[in-house]
Design goal:
Layout (H helix, E strand, L loop, with lengths): L2 H30 L29 H7 L9 H27 L8 H26 L4 H25 L16 H32 L14 H27 L5 H25 L6 H29 L18
């Protein structure tokens, strides 16, 4: 494969991953603003592919029409409608980006068919995610459906990261990796599992907050935390275990890897994200769950999982394909080696 093809695939793949993370952040903002049902139907919005800008553009009995279809929220709100509509447009754009990444991966079908296969799987997954989004709307934001929708987003990101990192195996840097303890990769796998579990518990806490918010006025936000059930306290305490587990991983990587090593850079990013996530959690606890912190909290947790997943596969590539002779550089940004 030539350098240009590999470089274009890497750039497109990384851009797509960043776009997916943007969609995760926007999706969290949709929930925080209560705009999840801004469009009560799918794939149209109030029966239109371009939603209305005023209630006068809708039939007089539109609320009854959607109530008869089983929708809980039927009152038109232009702000919520357009927030949700823009979220959907971004989702479509992500689908197109993943499709283009899949097309670009065809260059690997002979050299490394796993890369192509993973990109195809990611495209199928994003199509399933679109269908799942329609089921979330149809269920009136049923909690279990929201959790599955969130987890599916993590799966799509993981597929894309795996494809991009695997495509860069030729420049894997194994310097220092064999000095890590044998248990390192197992602890890293456990850490990834823990952050996914923490995100699931976080969505459950969020559902509890939504229920409490409906029964109390916004002026009573100081009572929201007091009324949360046991899952909130488990979620809060579990964050300490996650913090120390990941800091152990960061410390081990920092102590054995040379300056400039790509995994060391990811370790620094992991440490920073952990601190930011914990601070946001404390902010939500002490400041009565401010709306701005909710989507950021989930977003940082998603980024943590992505960084962990990247470290794991960069680590495996370094052990299996890196002889430690390659100059330290990023498997996501360094130039490829022609095969």
């Amino acid at each position: 494969m030539n350098n240009t093809s590999v470089s274009k695939f890497r750039m497109l793949g990384v851009s797509t991953i960043l776009a997916v993370y943007l969609l995760i952040l926007v999706g969290g903002a949709v929930r925080a603003t209560g705009a999840g049902m801004g469009c009560p139907d799918w794939p149209t919005c109030f029966g239109r592919f371009i939603p209305p800008t005023s209630e006068q553009q809708l039939p007089e009995n539109y609320q009854q029409i959607y109530a008869d279809r089983g929708y809980a929220e039927t009152r038109f709100n232009v702000k919520k409608t357009w927030i949700e509509y823009l979220n959907r447009l971004l989702g479509v754009s992500i689908g197109i980006a993943i499709f283009l990444t899949m097309i670009a991966s065809r260059k690997y079908r002979k050299h490394d068919p796993v890369v192509t296969g993973m990109c195809i799987a990611a495209f199928i997954a994003v199509a399933f995610q679109g269908w799942l989004g329609s089921r979330v709307v149809a269920s009136n934001l049923e909690p279990g459906m929201i959790t599955v929708h969130m987890l599916m987003a993590q799966v799509i990101v993981a597929m894309l990261i795996y494809a991009i990192v695997r495509s860069q195996r030729a420049i894997a840097d194994g310097a220092g990796l064999k000095q890590l303890p044998a248990v390192f990769h197992k602890v890293l796998l456990v850490a990834m599992g823990m952050i996914l579990l923490q995100m699931v518990m976080g969505t459950q806490v969020r559902e509890s907050v939504d229920i409490i918010a409906k029964s109390l006025s916004n002026e009573s936000r100081e009572l929201w935390v007091e009324r949360l059930d046991l899952i909130f306290y488990v979620h809060r305490s579990f964050s300490s275990i996650i913090l120390f587990t990941n800091l152990w991983l960061v410390w081990k990587l920092w102590s054995v890897l040379p300056t400039g090593h790509v995994i060391r850079k990811f370790a620094m990013a992991l440490a920073l994200l952990l601190v930011l996530t914990i601070l946001l959690g404390v902010t939500m606890d002490r400041l009565n769950i401010p709306a701005f912190a909710q989507p950021l909290h989930l977003w940082f947790a998603s980024l943590i999982f992505g960084v962990q997943f990247s470290i794991y596969h960069l680590y495996r590539n370094g052990l299996n394909f890196g002889g430690g002779q390659v100059a330290a550089g990023s498997a996501l940004t360094a130039g490829p080696i022609t095969n």
